[in-house]
Write a structure and sequence with these properties.
- The protein is built from twelve helices and nine strands.
- By secondary structure, the chain is an alpha/beta fold.
- The chain has a domain at about 10-145 and about 175-200 and about 265-275: NAD(P)-binding Rossmann-like Domain (Rossmann fold, 3-Layer(aba) Sandwich), CATH 3.40.50.
- It has a seven-stranded parallel β-sheet with strand order 3-2-1-4-5-6-8, with helices on both faces. The protein has a two-stranded parallel sheet with strand order 7-9.
- α4 (about 85-100) links the parallel β4 (about 75) and β5 (about 105-110).
- The longest helix is centred in the N-terminal third of the chain and has 15 residues, at about 85-100.
- The protein starts with 7 loop residues before the first strand and ends in a 7-residue tail after the last helix.
Amino acid sequence: MSQFKDKTLLVTGATGHFGRLAVAELLERGATGIVAGTRDPSQLDDLAARGVEVRRLDFDDAASMSAGFAGVDRALIISTVAHNRTAQQTAAVAAAKAAGVQHLVYTSAPNARPNASVGGIADHYWTEHAIAASGLDFTLLRNHIYADMTIVAAASALASGQLFDATNGGGRNYVTREDTARTAAGALLGATGKEIHDVTGPAPVTQEQLAALLTKLTGKPVARIGLSGEQLLGGLEAAGVPSFMAALLVAFDLDAAAGHHAITTDAVERYSGRKPQALADFLTANRAALAV
């Protein structure tokens, strides 16, 4: 499904891990008019050498956005990590519309909603709202938690023998960053209309199952310890996790407890043409990263 491969396709945040993966997928699938947007074009000389047009594109700079979106048919807006990302991303949507972009693909999060208590998840809601209100066609990709995050969590779990969570036994459908980037590229190449998709792995995994998997792969016993949201928040902050990030991690756990992460869809296969990688296979392939 690459009916738009000869259109001008923009990927924002192209210097990031996700952005580079998306551009690589577009190249592999034969896209001919790829534009890579970045705050620092000097970091993308390698892509320029492969025929990708590199443009300076800074969501905090209106002039750069006007130039960055000019002549673009379809754009992938990769969510930022800035403290003001709602303002950044809604400005980018407005700039895209003003430039005549016809279709927006956006990397969102599961169960996006405006509640103040859910931290950065609310930023995704307001960006989705701006995209829907723009009148443009869109594909909102609600990416579930990256499988990569289990490697981050594994370090302390393997060191202490305890994996703490507030999911109340709920599963989450981990998806690899590579699968989500391929999905986003595929949507840029072929999606039409106005659609919202959860982007997931092949099956939900509970934290009990994750603890057992870590034990199996490393030979080190890991026990899952269930906590309340308040207990988990206190523990994360006591461990030095910044309050904003701690609140976001707890919000993700509470959403899992409510069943919002135990969703399975065919979005990865639909847009990438490949089945999503299972968490067990991902961790097995990255076993060396689990060494502590």
